[in-house]
Structure formats: structure tokens, C-alpha cells
Structure to design on (384 residues):
């Protein structure tokens, strides 16, 4: 029996093992030299002045929204995103205002954003769905016109770009995820990037219980000071990344570009394979962007049928995402979003990761094609 093909799978090798072992051997596994090195390297890669490592993208969104001072204010956001994007708004005391999406990319609709701006709108969170960039020029122009902070949820977007600029580098704040399924992973982890020094300084304090002087800086072996002397200026959280995660992140950065290139090759193979199949479409790509190709999403009417067929064939698939405005917790903020409510029922993510072999992808392609032809025949028979 053939092995099951998973939806996502991280790519690890000897470099990641060595990085973890070296960090363990150093006997410093909390936030320290590896974390600082990771932040410096990541900020240069993204092209932002500052990078602050955290234990999740959720933490980055939460602290970014606190810095945007959204308490009691409205925050525009896409409904087609992971639930923590919207939960972060509530954690920061804001009020989510859900916007509809583009039908062919599932990115936030700029037209719907423009309709929903009010005098109490303070910020907008835009999610680069699947690593495909949102229409950033239009979003940034709209935000500048109304004095809004732009927070880029680039959890899917590490290595993607818009008109040559890295995703996450264009807004007031960019937030990245290094969770297990992402293009690069630290197991769990995140990063906040910004060009605003005051934001970076505040986030560094907030991530460690509001403490003004981090532990590594107070206990360096080459300096003598009273390590217990620090101040706490405001309530913070336990959101720091540790050196084990950062060491893994540094090793993952060495392979990120090659892995993303492999993702793009696999995505191109899917697009070519499904181009001549009626009723099966891939999400659109935009000429102004280079996608990080986080996930491969097909559009079809009989989503449930394809899910069941792939499962029978030993192939994982899933849906990303259930529209946030339909969750019970967000009912006080719910609204009618016709495009998202229609399209989420027509999407299915199929396997995509750098270690997916051509042979395994051929199994996925063949299974989709068999289902599509059988479904078409069934529909014709019913119509006849």
C-alpha cells in the first residue's frame, strides 16, 4: 500500500539537527545570542529596519495592534484568515470590521474596505492569502488617505513579494509565522518587523512581561552588574522566542529560497495539469507579485466529493479557511459577505511542500483528474 500523502510537511536536514545540538551544548536555550542573530538576519532579508522575534504570529499581531492603539476603535480585516488574526483585534481591545474578498485570490477586497471606513477606523489587517500578495498600492493609498495603520499578516508570505518588495515590509508592521506548516518553521514562532524604532522598542518590552532589560543582556558573562535590577513600565506578556527556536530558524533561512522555488515549480505543475479540466480551477496569481506558494487551493463546486475521493486515495486535503465572521465568538461583529460565503464552500487545499516528489504530485493530479471526469459524467447523466 502506498504511503499517505500529507497536506504539509516541514523540510529538515542535518543543518537543523546540528543547529539544535550546538545550542543545547551552549547551555543557553532561552532568548539569547541565537535569537538576536536570527532577528538581525531576518530584518535584512525582509528589508525592514527592525525585527522582533516572538513565540507566534498571533503574538506579533496582538502586540502590533497594541502599538497601533486600536483600543475602542475599529480594525478592518479579511474574513478569510486564520482565527487568531481576528482574535488579536479583540485581545488589543479593538472592534473587528469584516471585509469581503476577491473571488479569485481570496485576498481582502479594497473596494469593500473603502466602503467600511468610518471616523472610528484606526487600522487595517491585510492577510496575504496563500502567499499571494494583496493589492498593496491601493491599500497603502487608501490607508494614507484616512490615516490608518497597516498591519500585514504575512503568516503565509515569507519569501513572497509585491513589485519587488518583500511581503511584510510595506505596512506599518509586518507579522510572520514560523508554525510547523509554514514555508520556514521554528516549530512554533513568529516575527514582527517594522521601520518604526519606537514600535520595535515597545514590542521588545511587551514580549517579556513589560521588563525593560532582557535576561540575556543582564547576565552576559563579559559584564558585571546586578542582574536583578530592571523596571516594569507596563503590563506585558510571555511572548519571547527562545534560542532553540531561533537556531532552527537560522538553519531554515539557509534553505528558504530553494524551498520556495520548489513550491513554485510544484504550483506550476498543478496549474498546467488542471488547465484543461472543466470545473477545476486554481486560485489566481497576479502579475504584480511573486507568491511564496504556501498552499495550493483548487476551486470547484463539489468540494465535499473531492475531499472524500482524495481521502480514499490516501491523500490529505483541507479547507483554509472557515470565514471568521461565521464563528460564534464574532457574532456581535458579523455581517453579510456574499463572496466569502460563496467561495469558501468551493475551495480545497491539496498537498504542497518542498519534499513532495514529482511522483507523489502525479498521484494527487491523477486523483483530481479522475474525480473531475467522473463528476462531470455524473452531472451530465443527471441533467440528461
Amino acid at each position: 500500500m502506498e504511503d499517505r500523502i500529507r497536506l504539509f510537511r516541514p523540510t529538515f536536514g542535518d543543518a537543523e539537527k546540528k543547529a539544535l545540538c550546538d545550542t543545547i551544548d551552549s547551555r543557553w536555550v532561552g532568548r539569547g545570542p541565537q535569537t538576536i542573530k536570527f532577528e538581525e538576519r531576518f530584518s535584512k532579508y525582509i528589508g525592514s529596519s527592525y525585527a522582533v522575534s516572538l513565540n507566534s504570529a498571533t503574538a506579533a499581531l496582538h502586540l502590533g495592534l497594541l502599538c497601533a492603539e486600536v483600543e475602542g476603535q475599529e480594525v478592518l480585516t479579511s474574513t478569510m484568515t486564520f482565527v487568531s488574526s481576528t482574535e488579536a483585534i479583540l485581545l488589543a481591545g479593538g472592534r473587528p470590521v469584516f471585509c469581503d474578498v476577491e473571488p479569485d485570490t481570496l485576498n481582502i477586497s479594497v473596494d469593500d474596505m473603502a466602503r467600511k471606513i468610518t471616523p472610528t477606523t484606526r487600522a487595517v489587517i491585510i492577510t496575504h492569502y496563500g502567499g499571494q500578495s494583496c493589492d498593496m498600492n491601493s491599500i497603502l493609498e487608501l490607508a494614507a488617505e484616512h490615516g490608518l495603520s497597516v498591519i500585514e499578516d504575512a503568516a503565509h508570505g515569507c519569501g513572497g513579494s509585491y513589485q519587488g518588495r518583500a511581503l511584510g515590509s510595506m505596512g506599518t508592521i509586518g507579522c510572520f509565522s514560523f508554525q510547523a506548516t509554514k514555508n520556514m518553521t521554528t516549530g512554533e514562532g513568529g516575527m514582527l518587523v517594522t521601520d518604526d524604532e519606537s514600535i520595535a522598542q515597545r514590542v521588545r518590552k511587551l514580549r517579556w512581561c513589560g521588563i525593560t532589560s532582557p535576561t540575556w543582556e543582564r547576565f552576559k558573562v563579559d559584564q558585571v552588574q546586578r542582574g536583578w535590577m530592571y523596571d516594569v513600565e507596563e503590563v506585558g506578556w510571555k511572548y519571547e522566542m527562545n534560542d532553540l527556536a531561533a537556531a532552527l530558524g537560522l538553519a531554515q533561512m539557509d534553505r528558504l529560497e530553494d524551498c520556495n522555488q520548489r513550491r513554485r515549480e510544484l504550483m506550476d505543475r498543478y496549474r498546467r495539469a488542471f488547465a484543461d479540466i472543466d470545473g477545476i480551477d486554481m486560485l489566481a496569481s497576479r502579475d504584480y507579485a511573486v507568491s511564496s506558494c504556501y498552499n495550493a487551493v483548487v476551486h470547484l463546486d463539489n468540494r465535499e466529493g473531492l475531499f472524500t475521493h482524495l481521502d480514499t486515495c490516501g491523500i490529505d486535503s483541507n479547507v483554509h479557511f472557515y470565514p471568521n465572521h461565521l464563528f460564534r465568538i464574532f457574532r456581535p461583529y458579523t455581517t453579510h459577505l456574499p463572496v466569502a460565503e460563496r467561495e469558501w464552500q468551493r475551495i480545497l487545499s491539496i498537498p504542497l511542500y518542498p519534499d513532495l516528489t514529482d511522483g507523489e504530485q502525479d498521484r494527487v493530479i491523477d486523483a483530481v483528474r479522475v474525480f473531475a471526469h467522473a463528476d462531470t459524467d455524473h452531472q451530465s447523466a443527471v441533467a440528461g
Remarks:
- The first helix runs from residue 14 to 26.
